[in-house]
Design brief:
heterodimer; A: alpha+beta; Ubiquitin-like (UB roll); Alpha-Beta Plaits; 6-stranded mixed β-sheet; elongated; B: 173 residues; alpha+beta
Chain lengths: 591, 173
């Protein structure tokens, strides 16, 4: 491997890499605005300037040495930009040096000439690259006493993205993103010099299904989200790692939570799954159902109305009802929206009871899928449900034949996790309504939940711990982002600052802590009421039982899944080489 | 004289006159008697009220100008508040020049410690410490003051604003 020296430290790099790539991968901090590993190199912000030298050679091609026998370097007369200069074998680079520092200071002063001082009302403040470098690489004083340029403060570029011309530092990340990643080349620079700004071409708007990624990659607050605008300051939220459940891709995301409510979702880097991006649909829709219309607790139907009940009572009642029926009269609906653990527990329960009638509903939408991230399978765990054997056994009733089987009187009781079966069609709704026993575990008050005889409040993806298997057969671990009564004891450090320190009489900690439980816990409750004697206490117990039983999961555990950012089926025993994950700008310090 | 164990006793430390107390009592009584002819320093509150100067840090309030509140809901006061007394929720408006305004601004006066950090950090000089020191609440809910109780016309806050202009907490070099 070729070697180079950065700030007197010898590092190895892959040939073809630029200086900035080699430096970042080896843990150096190179200030930059316009460079992004997912985009082409523009080299227009001039922030990554560095001093580059090559070893001096004698006429006879031997290295030129000084009196101490050290290599002499010929430095290029001008500073070079690290993002566009290819690294070369033997190269000597200075990233921290008086010359480099003063150049960076000048670039900062130049960028800040027309940048407004509206950090207090800017959504980016707190995770802004310009703000960060303003502390690190700037004198903090401006010699500019003239009036700043004024430009448009709120120009919509598309339905979801708002552009503030004054804050823009013309790094062109958004333009390159629109051209290269979103494949919708509608953005461009107009005008010159300090009047330079970004516009859409006349009559066109930036409405790509991936348009909102420009909000993250914008190093300043010039591009803001119509949906999130002004909802919260970044330091008031906790950014908890989770996974988008909008489709079978399973994009890695962060959930911004304040007052136990998800306020926004943003992509988290995982080079194997979603790289740096996520789709607008996921970003705009995947948090709303966590915040609203939730099933609050366990409920039992008495004389036609659902009444609140204790968990243990609900479990014994479910078991009592199920005992009335023969095994083949009970149908189990697994779910591609539930975790591997949940589906495993359901399969085990069906097996314990001895029912062959188990299946799950597939939600395919060809119109949703595309070649980038969006997948036509609209559920996060269809692969997992399939693998764990959520399919009808010998002579069992499948999801498709469910309505017929109910009408024929073959099925008399049903256990449903997560999915809205009644919402599929009016025939399904009628079938459910005609049954004597409907046990539903649901997170939201859907038509199915309202038709339940025993309703068990369940955790959404934001409250549970478990694993999803995406369409690549990659098993990904998800941890709770939002506090529920079930996970409260482990959430302390993951809460936002205000939630952490609030008392009961503070109005800002009144965010609902719901009494919902993971499906496998509810199923364990029911199974144990039926005398199964399961001993699962936490998700990890279920997962290790699952990993023991299914070959493709063998060797996996939560710590390993976290370390490798998800593992493909059957690959847990293979050697793993960590990949460098670039993060453009986050809330600093991370807390 | 020392007691046998080598320890000082009270008897050893005090002289004869001190031990009989009477002269000391007389001295104390003389001081008390003298104070009867000195001018009184106590106030007969509430008939006679204390009028603080501009330097006084009383109940924090929001400045209300003729065209509306100064506050832009940046939340810095809420961030800096060591007692977590302030909660701000920003909203967006197109009616005014300032696009951002506080939809909700609440100060929990049971938490407030009157440190004045909120006033110091405010980039708009929108939250200032008033002269109000009379805070009576009948329950905890009442002690959480919303915008309607916090907004105070700028005319009533001239003393404090003047004081802030002349006495900066931190003077840049």
């Amino acid at each position: 491997m070729p070697q180079m020296i950065i700030d007197n430290k010898t590092i190895e790099f892959k040939s073809g890499q630029t200086i900035i790539q080699a430096a970042l991968e080896n843990g150096f901090d190179v200030p930059h605005f316009c460079w992004h590993p997912g985009l082409s190199v523009a080299g227009n912000c001039r922030m990554c300037l560095c001093d580059v030298g090559m070893p001096r050679m004698n006429p006879d091609k031997t290295p030129a040495l000084d009196e101490q026998g050290k290599q002499i370097y010929n430095f290029l007369p001008k500073l070079q930009i690290a993002c566009a200069t290819p690294a070369a074998d033997g190269m000597f680079v200075r990233l921290n040096d008086k010359k480099v520092e003063s150049a960076q200071e000048s670039v900062m002063e130049f960028l800040l000439i027309n940048h407004p001082l509206d950090c207090p009302i800017c959504d980016e403040a707190g995770q802004c690259k310009l703000q960060e470098y303003g502390y690190k690489h700037s004198k903090g004083e401006s010699r500019f006493i003239e009036t700043k340029n004024h430009k448009d403060k709120r120009r919509p570029l598309g339905p979801n993205v708002l552009f503030d011309g004054e804050r823009c530092i013309s790094c062109s990340r958004c333009i390159r993103y629109a051209n290269e990643e979103a494949q919708q080349p509608v953005l461009t620079f107009v005008n010159r010099g300090d009047h330079n700004t970004i516009e859409t071409f006349p009559g066109q708007e930036f409405d790509s299904p991936y348009s909102m990624n420009v909000i993250e990659i914008c190093p300043v607050g010039a591009l803001t989200s119509q949906d999130f605008r002004f909802k919260a300051r970044v330091w008031d939220m906790s950014f908890n790692e989770t996974i988008c459940t909008g489709c079978a891709r399973g994009c890695n995301i962060n959930a911004g939570v304040r007052d136990n409510e998800i306020l926004r979702l943003e992509p988290r880097v995982n080079m194997e799954v979603n790289q740096y991006w996520m789709c607008d649909h996921g970003r705009l829709n995947q948090y709303k159902f966590v915040n609203t219309n939730r099933v609050q607790q366990a409920m039992i139907r008495e004389n036609g109305t659902l009444l609140d009940a204790d968990w243990s009572v609900a479990y014994t009642r479910s078991a009592e009802i199920l005992k009335h029926y023969q095994a083949h009269e009970i149908m189990f609906f697994g779910s591609a929206r539930a975790t591997n653990e949940d589906n495993f527990a359901l399969v085990e329960l069906a097996r314990h009871i001895g029912s062959p009638n188990i299946d799950f509903v597939r939600y395919h939408d060809e119109a949703f899928g595309d070649a980038k991230l969006r997948h036509s399978d609209r559920t996060p765990n269809a692969k997992g449900a399939e693998t764990l054997g959520v399919k009808p056994g010998n002579g069992g009733v499948s999801a498709d034949s469910f309505v017929h089987a109910v009408q024929a009187g073959k099925i008399k009781a049903v256990v449903i996790i997560e999915d809205d079966i009644a919402g599929l069609s009016s025939a399904h709704a009628q079938a459910l309504a005609s049954l004597e026993c409907v046990i539903v575990q649901a997170s939201n008050m859907t038509a199915t939940a309202q038709a339940a005889h025993v309703l068990l409040a369940s955790a959404t993806y934001a409250e549970l711990e478990g694993t999803y298997t995406n369409f690549q057969e990659r098993v990904q671990h998800v941890e709770p982002a939002v506090v529920s009564k079930e996970n409260a004891s482990r959430m302390g450090l993951k809460m936002s600052r205000l939630d952490k320190f609030g008392a009961e009489n503070d109005r800002w900690t009144n965010g609902e802590k719901r009494d919902c439980r993971m499906h496998w816990r509810n199923l364990t409750g029911i199974a144990n009421a039926l005398g199964a004697g399961w001993s699962y206490k936490k998700s990890a117990d279920v997962f290790s039982a699952l990993a023991d039983k299914y070959e493709v999961f063998s060797g996996m555990d939560y710590a390993l899944l976290d370390e490798r950012r998800g593992i493909l089926f059957g690959k847990a025993h293979e050697e793993y080489v960590p990949v460098f994950e670039y993060s453009s700008h986050d809330l600093k310090p991370q807390s | 004289m020392r007691s046998p164990a080598g320890k000082e006793t009270q008897k050893d430390r005090m002289g004869f006159w001190e031990r009989i107390y009477l002269p000391e009592i007389a001295k104390g009584m003389a001081t008390t008697f003298k104070q009867m002819f000195e001018p009184a320093v106590t106030r007969e509150y509430p008939e006679e009220r204390f009028a603080p100067t501009g330097s006084y840090r009383g109940r924090p309030v929001l400045v209300l100008e003729e065209d509306g509140e100064r506050c832009v809901a940046c939340g810095l006061c809420s961030r800096v508040c060591p007692a977590l007394a302030i909660q701000v929720q920003a909203g967006e408006t197109l009616e005014r020049d300032k696009e951002r305004y506080p939809e909700k601004f609440e100060i929990n006066m049971l938490r407030c410690i009157f440190c004045g950090f909120c006033e110091e950090v405010c980039p708009e000089e929108a939250i200032v410490m008033s002269k109000d020191y009379e805070m009576v609440f009948q329950n905890r809910e009442e002690a959480i003051l919303g915008k309607e109780k916090l907004l105070t016309p700028v005319a009533q806050l001239q003393d404090r604003l003047e004081y802030l202009r002349t006495h900066q907490y931190y003077e840049p070099k």
